[in-house]
């Protein structure tokens, strides 16, 4: 009857879905104008498609780290609470098993009914506690997704990017991307600065 510690892998999946199209000023010119080059011959950042490594994002984004710590703590607390209730119930069952031979038939029947009700209540408590944790995790997961997506929308618009993709090792549609298109570090820095300002 132990509550399993909730996995936070779904958050990684949520962040991996962040693919933001920035508002195009002119769709026709965007599709017909060739990529501009700088004096050094490299492609201009204007109209580029860039990507963020979601693995690095999750390990270095302070908001995610704080969120994971909070949810892990709640899951651990629920696990300990459930463990204590289960042990108390098991002690009652053990005590009944020791005394049942000396009990009258009606007393045995009433005790067994009481223990059966208690077991059902314990199972219902476990299910409700698990559902509450999952609901909170889903809510926080959505907040995390919104934070990253909203930041990337503004970031892409400022930089002139038309699309921001995500890359995750072993779970990505991107087979190859030049490292010059990786904006992960800059995005993490910006996200952490925003998060730091909200904590003050």
Let me know the number of strands: 3
* Overall average residue pLDDT: 80
Question: What count of structural domains?
Answer: 1
The 3D shape can be described as: rod-shaped
Query: Approximately what portion of the residues adopt beta-strand conformation?
Result: 5-15%
Tally of contiguous helical segments: 6
Biggest sheet record: 3 strands, mixed
Helix content: 55-70%
Low-confidence stretches: 1-43
Neighbour order of strands in the largest sheet: 1-3-2
Distance between the termini: 41 Å
Order of helices and strands: HEHEHHHEH
Please compute the radius of gyration using only Cα atoms: 27 Å
Oligomer: single chain
SSE layout:
Layout: H1 9-16, E1 20-21, H2 27-32, E2 49-53, H3 54-60, H4 62-99, H5 105-159, E3 163-167, H6 184-199
Parallel strand pairs: 2-3
Antiparallel strand pairs: 1-3
Question: Features of this protein?
Answer:
3 strands; 65% helix; mainly alpha
Structure description:
Belongs to the Skp family. Residues 1-22 form the signal peptide. The chain has 200 residues and is mostly helical. It has one domain (9-21, 40-178). The chain is 65% helix and 6% strand. The longest helix is centred in the middle third of the chain and has 55 residues, at 105-159.
Give a quick precis of the structure:
It comes from Pedobacter quisquiliarum. The protein is mainly alpha-helical and 200 residues long.
């Amino acid at each position: 009857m132990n509550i399993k510690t909730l996995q936070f892998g779904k958050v990684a999946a949520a962040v991996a879905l962040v693919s933001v199209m920035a508002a195009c000023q002119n769709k026709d010119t965007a599709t017909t104008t060739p990529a501009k080059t700088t004096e050094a011959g490299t492609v201009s950042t204007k109209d580029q498609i860039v990507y963020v490594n979601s693995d690095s994002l999750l390990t270095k984004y302070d908001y995610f780290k704080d969120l994971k710590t909070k949810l892990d703590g709640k899951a651990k607390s629920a696990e300990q609470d459930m463990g204590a209730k289960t042990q108390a119930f098991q002690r009652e069952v053990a005590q009944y098993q020791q005394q049942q031979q000396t009990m009258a038939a009606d007393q045995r029947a009433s005790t067994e009914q009481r223990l059966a009700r208690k077991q059902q209540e314990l199972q219902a408590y476990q299910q409700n506690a698990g559902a509450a944790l999952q609901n909170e995790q889903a809510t926080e997961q959505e907040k995390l997704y919104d934070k990253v997506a909203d930041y990337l929308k503004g970031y892409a618009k400022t930089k002139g990017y038309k699309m921001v993709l995500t890359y995750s090792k072993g779970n990505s549609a991107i087979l190859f991307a030049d490292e010059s298109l990786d904006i992960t570090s800059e995005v993490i820095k910006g996200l952490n600065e925003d998060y730091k300002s909200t904590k003050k």
